[in-house]
Amino acid sequence: MPGSTTLLSEAADAVLLSFKQHSSQKQDVGAVEALQEFWQMKKSRGLSFSRSAEVEYEFVPSPDHVYVAYVTLPGGSCFGNFETCTTKEQAKQNAAKLALMNSVLSEHPNNKVTAESSKKMLAEATKPFQSKLGIGHNKALKTFSEILHSHSGDSVLQFQEAMTVFQLLHWNGSLKAMRERNCTREEVIQHYSNRTIDSDLRDQMSLDWVARDERTPGIILQELKLAESELDTARNSGKELRFFKEKLEVLSLAQTQTREREIAFDP
């Protein structure tokens, strides 16, 4: 019986083949070119993006001549190579193929945010926090349910940015802090809706972790190792990676800031 990686690869290959048949480019177009064409078509139709309108690639050094590539889409969603790749180009094509499959499928009417799909998204988005939420879990679920409802009719990728903001601020303890200030659910939702993931948000969250590390020395390193493991597991499973990648970036920034403070105060 084929493994999950094989099935995912076959599905991504099928979408790429189908896209090639309708492509304006030559038939031997690769996944990278096909993905670029897909998002150029969306841009030409007047679709606006909350971040860069370009498809962006990032490569991470890896031991033993194994390459890791990440592709971030104009809407903010991020995917990585889910297969073991021995060259940078192979990793880039593999990540692009997965991103193309998700981009194409996200446009299908059956993949719009609905009441049924909301339940699955709700479970997926809050899964990383279930063991830590305690009595706040139900409140978090209700808040996220209302955020989902406000995005009814959007594609899954369009909704992804709002979901990632929710996950990041939840992970960072921002929701708990707002509850402690007696903020209403409507105020919380308004707060999430107006936030975008940018350098200012990352800086704010990293400073929160620097403060936590001062109270509990070593917590940044502990969370950093966990985040690296989660990102690897999610990438190998072919999942959308924005939350995991942003979390790792915030913690890496916090670790750098902690080291800089230690150097500055070292007699």
Explain briefly what this protein structure is.
By secondary structure, the protein is mainly alpha-helical.
Query: In which range does the helix fraction lie?
Result: 55-70%
Which geometry do the CA atoms define? globular
Structural class: mainly alpha
Q: Give a quick account of the main beta sheet: strands, pairing sense, barrel closure.
A: 3 strands, antiparallel
Q: What is the beta-strand fraction?
A: under 5%
Strand order in the largest sheet:
1-2-3
Average of pLDDT: 82
- Order of H and E elements: HHEEEHHHHHHHHHH
Distance between the termini: 62 Å
Uncertain runs = none
CA-based gyration radius: 20 Å
E-strand count: 3
Count of helical segments? Answer: 12
Please, could you describe this protein's structure?
This protein is mainly alpha-helical and 267 residues long. 64% of the residues lie in helices and 5% in strands. Strands 1-2-3 form a 3-stranded antiparallel β-sheet, with helices on one face. Helix 1 (4-21) packs across helix 3 and helix 10 (199-215) crosses helix 12 (242-265). It is globular. The relative contact order is 0.10.
Notable features of this structure?
single chain, 267 residues, mainly alpha, 12 helices, 3-stranded antiparallel beta sheet, 64% helix
Outline the fold blueprint.
Layout: H1 4-21, H2 31-44, E1 56-60, E2 68-72, E3 78-80, H3 88-106, H4 115-126, H5 130-133, H6 137-150, H7 156-171, H8 174-180, H9 185-193, H10 199-215, H11 219-236, H12 242-265
Antiparallel strand pairs: 1-2, 2-3
Helix pairs in contact: 1-3, 2-3, 4-6, 6-7, 6-9, 7-12, 10-12, 11-12
